[in-house]
Amino acid sequence: MSVPSKFEARAQLKLAVLIDADNTQAPITEGLLAEVAKYGVASVKRIYGDWTTTNLKHWKERLLSYAIQPIQQFSYTTGKNATDSAMIIDAMDLLYTEKLDGFCIVSSDSDFTRLAARMREAGKLVIGFGERKTPKPFVAACDKFIYTEILRAPEEETTPAKELTKKKNSEQELKLDKKLRVLLVTAVEDSADDSGWAYLGSVGQYIANRQPEFDPRNYGFRKLGELIKACVWFDVEERSNPVDPGKLIYIKKR
Fold first, then answer.
1. Which residues lie closer than 8 Å to 218 by C-beta, 6 or more apart?
2. pTM, whole model, 2 decimals?
3. Range of the domain at 66
4. Are residues 143 and 237 in the same domain?
5. Whose CA is closest to 200, among 166, 233, 237?
6. Contacts of 209 (CB under 8 A, 6+ apart)
7. Among 164, 189, 212, which residue terminates a domain?
8. What pLDDT digit, counting tens, does each position of 72-84 carry?
9. Alpha-carbon dihedral sign for residues 96, 100, 101, 106
10. What is the tens place of the pLDDT at every residue in 3-45?
11. How far is 148 from 134, CA to CA, in rounded Å?
């Protein structure tokens, strides 16, 4: 999925990955870092929590393997999330002291909504990672939001995660998804030229700007083009690229 145009050279971006251990499951680690690598280099990798408790023992064996730095934050008061505060303070320090291009905030907690918005105001790329239960305001505050259920290794997937990524591969199933149809049709129509054809890259950009949490993998497809082709609402045309041996995909509403 595309991100805003000012971040097109994303392979060279320097990113900070900040993980809320209290609200994130360890099995996503490999998938998480692989996803981050699509956008740039994880120059900073930190995870926050109270490491004196047994609650985070499932994380400890992974920290060394993936070179993630644990940040200790004691839970001073019951019911108060000191981890969130420490993570926000660190993020602001990094914003002003390090030459970073973006931040990956890994949490399902709405407390990071204002932080994400502030990072974007500073011109930084903000990618959120969280479970499907993540509050909508935090999702909307990010440039891109990725549901962590799709990042689990196949053998570690829970039943709900498997259901989430189950491919809607029949025409009937896709026809019944009205929200998906409205989103895709609107994206194609608003990105189309005078002849009604829209370039797939422009469609993806429109969707990323309008709905940060959209990801074709939520529907069981690896790429947006694969999802589009499986739909029954569009004509798809592959055109030769004059500067590249690959094909350019164009879409038109039927």
1. 147, 150, 164, 165
2. 0.77
3. 5-164
4. no
5. 237
6. 4
7. 164
8. 887 655 444 778 8
9. negative
10. 545 445 444 799 999 999 988 999 999 999 999 998 999 999 9
11. 10
Task: Please identify which residue in the block is written with the tokens 């400890």.
Answer: 60
Same domain (yes/no): 80, 97: yes
* DSSP β-ladder status, 247-253 and 234-240: antiparallel
What pLDDT does residue 170 have? 54
Q: Model confidence at 238, in pLDDT bands (50, 70, 90)? A: confident
* CA dihedral (224, 226, 231, 237) positive or negative: positive
> 3-class SS at 136?
helix
The per-residue b/e assignment along 26-43, b for 16 or more CB within 10 angstroms, e otherwise, is bbbbebbbebbeebbebe
Is-contact 84 23, C-beta < 8 A? Answer: no
Query: Which CATH number does the domain housing residue 70 bear?
Result: 3.40.50.1010
